[in-house]
Design a protein that fits this description.
Number of domains: 2
Radius of gyration: 25 Å
Shape: globular
Bound molecules: zinc ion
Largest sheet: 6 strands, antiparallel
Mean pLDDT: 85
Low-confidence stretches: 1-7, 298-308, 423-427
Helix content: 40-55%
Distance between the termini: 37 Å
């Protein structure tokens, strides 16, 4: 699920479902993916060639006209087997890549390579039909252009009531699994604000992202990596060692690579599911959520990575992608539900400071799981202490911003320490 902010209160939201194509559908989709890649690359060649040779700017509209021409030429007449709106979307993607490049937000568009680039095809409203199931609202029949049968979709959940898919993205991952992402327009209603019982203080939670536990909350709750994920990760490590022993270019190597791709897909599914549930719960129960800047986590990780035992390595494998995803989910869920996400500074000493008396202690190796403050004698769990510090620092920043707001104005959905220069002299 990804956010696409539109007008106030409405959001575009993606719901992804797995589907099982018939042999015929799988073949037609394989041709579609190939055609999208081909059209993208031809469009790229046309645009860059026109500029290099003649200093002529070729835009989206011209590439669309060229597409009509390509279909008439015998060598590329096979393009007609693929829905033309899907091919146009491929050219639109190319155009978007160019726009990003012009705004210096991205690199110059690169050719798409089979097996390297993601297999994807985008169907706009005219490229598919949707018939809602009267018995199970939010699910239904989806039939893609140029296909006779509807897709066999596993509706792992229903689409929100009253919504209609406005765009579909059909993908095939490296493990050969097919997915359809349906983009729907939704009205998000902010949740009622949550306060600390008996006060007007917004309820806040501090998160410490770590290796021993995936997330530690300031109330002492620890969220561990699911056991299933650890098992997958161990298997993955074993397969990767196996891969190195296989001869390059051999069939066996290919087989191992396939299994690795499938495991990666499984791991990311389990992780996404876990993070989705965790972030929804945290956003429902709290008004302000505080995390450290991700770069701090990375720094810590680099230091921790040196010579650590295998278990830490496994956790790291799982955590790496997870932290970015966690932050991303918190960001858009806070926006949807009217919560505030505070990102504290990267130089904030969350693990060294005593959360009881604020004395700054020595830096401690990650193997030290607990310690006693030399100043006040408080006994700390390393991660819980860090989470409390993160929450306190986040609330300091929150009040700094909230105090400057006109009465009745709600706090922003994102407060970032690096944007508030005046208050970086913390602790
Ligand atoms: Zn202390």
């Amino acid at each position: 699920m990804q956010p696409h902010s539109k007008e106030q209160g409405t959001h575009h939201r993606l719901y992804r479902f797995r589907f099982y194509p018939t042999k015929e559908q799988a073949e037609q989709l394989a041709r579609t993916f190939g055609a999208c890649r081909w059209v993208y690359n031809e469009g790229l060649a046309l645009r860059s060639g026109a500029w290099e040779r003649h200093r002529v700017h070729v835009g989206f509209a011209e590439t669309c006209r060229a597409l009509t021409g390509w279909k008439r030429v015998e060598e590329s007449a096979w393009l007609a087997e693929v829905s033309s709106t899907v091919l146009q979307q491929s050219l639109r993607h190319l155009d978007q890549a160019y726009q990003r490049f012009f705004k210096r937000q991205g690199r110059y568009p690169a050719r798409k390579k089979k097996g390297r680039s993601r297999d994807a095809a985008v169907y706009v409203r005219t490229g598919f039909t949707w018939v809602e199931d009267a018995e199970r609202p939010g699910t239904g029949l989806i039939r893609l252009a140029k296909q006779s049968e509807p897709l066999d979709i596993r509706w792992s959940r229903a689409l929100p009531a009253g919504t209609v898919p406005v765009r579909l993205t059909v993908t095939r991952d490296r493990a050969g699994r097919h997915f359809v992402s349906t983009l729907v327009e939704e009205r998000m209603v902010p949740l009622p604000a949550v306060f600390v019982p008996g006060s007007r203080e917004p309820k806040a939670v501090g998160l410490d992202l770590g290796l021993a536990s995936l997330v530690t909350l300031d109330d002492g709750t620890k969220v561990d990596h699911p056991r299933l994920m650890r098992r997958y990760a161990e298997k993955l490590a074993r397969l990767q060692r196996e891969l190195h022993k296989k001869v390059r270019g051999s069939r066996n190597r290919d087989k191992v690579r396939q299994r690795i791709a499938r495991l990666h897909a499984l791991i990311s599914d389990v992780r996404r599911d876990l993070l989705d549930k965790l972030t929804t719960r945290l956003v429902r129960e709290n008004q302000v959520l505080v995390v450290e800047d991700l770069s701090v986590v990375n720094l810590v990780r680099a230091a921790r990575g040196r010579g650590r035992q295998r278990k830490a390595k496994l956790n790291q494998l799982i955590s790496d992608a997870g932290w970015g995803e966690l932050l991303r989910m918190l960001r858009y869920k806070c926006e949807w539900y009217g919560r505030t996400l505070v990102i504290v500074d990267r130089f904030f000493p969350s693990t060294r400071r005593c959360s009881a008396c604020h004395a700054k202690g020595p830096s401690r190796d990650v193997s030290v799981r607990g310690w006693v403050c030399a100043e006040c004698g408080a006994v700390h769990d390393r991660d819980v202490n860090a989470a409390v510090n993160v929450r306190d620092e986040g609330m300091r920043l929150y009040w700094l911003v909230a105090a400057g707001l006109p009465p009745g104005r709600k706090a922003p959905t994102l407060i970032r320490a690096s944007d508030l220069e005046a208050c970086s002299a913390a602790a």
